[in-house]
């Protein structure tokens, strides 16, 4: 089971109401390389991955939910005081008529999240390579978000999340090496 | 009704976030380096420190965890009271 902890993994501050930025951040909420996709990908793959990396997939998958909560907090704080007119000007009019200011799992362009964003191949190397690629794509997305953002407080939290993608990628690469070594040893003995 | 949040809340929460970040980092590292005794020792040290400051936090601002993981809910059921993490 999972246990909720009433805290954010890292503080989220925003400078001002900024629905345009919130719209862009949705890419990491319900986008193909976003945090929801990451969490669901890893936690689903772990049932058929070799024992040696189940712990890693469980822990990174769990951390992704903490990142999802940080993104949700950013979007919530950036939009909570926005008027319908401000939302419309930010390109969120389509979102508003369907969801008011509620969050929804879609990307920056409003395309709803789909399971076809993620894969579970049952082949551990194929799955881990997908996971490494996912982390690198999420890292790149964070970089583009930092580049386009004009909110210094928000950028601090985005930089934290960008660094986490780098660490996750590194750990997944180590997991690949662990499985390769294991495979080599089995051939020898 | 959300509880009163003061400077100490942010100060303690910041400390918890910092210490728990060390634990997240060490957890992932130990997942791929389970034989590293020094990392394990560091993990144990920070784990004890985390428990200690969470106890201080929870006495003042209520339980951090649900389902009885925070063992002392206090004299009244406080879990449903804010602020929630996105509200501070």
UniProtKB/TrEMBL annotation, chain A:
The keyword Lipid biosynthesis does not apply. Keywords: Calcium, Capsid protein, Manganese, Metal-binding, Virion. It comes from the Bacteria. The keyword Manganese applies. Binds 1 Ca(2+) ion per subunit. Its cofactor is Ca(2+); Mn(2+). Pfam families: Mn_catalase. Transmembrane segments: none annotated. Ca(2+) binds at residue 59. Mn(2+) binds at residues 35, 64, 67, 135, 168. GO terms for molecular function: metal ion binding. InterPro entries: Ferritin-like (IPR012347), Ferritin-like_SF (IPR009078), Mn_catalase (IPR007760), Mn_catalase_dom (IPR039377). Belongs to the manganese catalase family. This is Spore coat protein CotJC. It comes from Peribacillus glennii.
TrEMBL record, chain B:
Keywords: Capsid protein, Virion. It holds the Pfam family CotJB. InterPro entries: CotJB_dom, Spore_coat_assembly_CotJB. Residues 11-87 form the Protein CotJB domain. This is Spore coat protein CotJB.
């Amino acid at each position: 089971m999972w246990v909720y902890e009433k805290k954010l993994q890292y503080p989220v501050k925003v400078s001002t109401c900024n629905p345009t930025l919130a719209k862009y951040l949705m890419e990491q909420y319900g986008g193909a390389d976003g945090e929801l996709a990451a969490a669901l990908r890893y936690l689903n793959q772990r049932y058929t991955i070799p024992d040696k990396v189940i712990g890693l997939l469980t822990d990174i998958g769990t951390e992704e939910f903490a990142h999802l909560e940080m993104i949700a907090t950013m979007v919530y704080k950036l939009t909570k005081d926005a008027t319908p007119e401000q939302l419309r000007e930010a390109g969120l009019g389509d979102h508003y008529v369907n969801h008011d200011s509620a969050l929804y799992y879609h990307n920056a362009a409003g395309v709803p999240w789909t399971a076809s964003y993620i894969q579970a191949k049952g082949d551990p190397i194929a799955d881990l390579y997908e996971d490494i690629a996912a982390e690198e794509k999420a890292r790149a997305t964070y970089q583009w978000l930092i580049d386009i953002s004009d909110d210094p407080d928000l950028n601090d939290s985005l930089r934290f999340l960008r660094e986490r993608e780098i660490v996750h990628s590194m750990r997944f690469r180590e997991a690949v090496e662990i499985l390769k070594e294991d495979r080599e040893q089995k051939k020898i003995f | 009704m959300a509880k009163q949040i003061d400077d100490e809340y942010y100060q303690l929460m910041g400390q918890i976030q910092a210490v728990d970040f060390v634990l997240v980092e060490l957890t992932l590292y130990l997942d791929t380096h389970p034989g590293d005794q020094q990392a394990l020792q560091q993990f144990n040290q920070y784990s004890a420190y985390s428990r200690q400051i969470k106890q201080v936090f929870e006495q003042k601002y209520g339980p951090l965890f649900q389902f009885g993981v925070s063992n002392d809910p206090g004299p009244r059921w406080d879990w449903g009271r804010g602020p929630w993490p996105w509200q501070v």
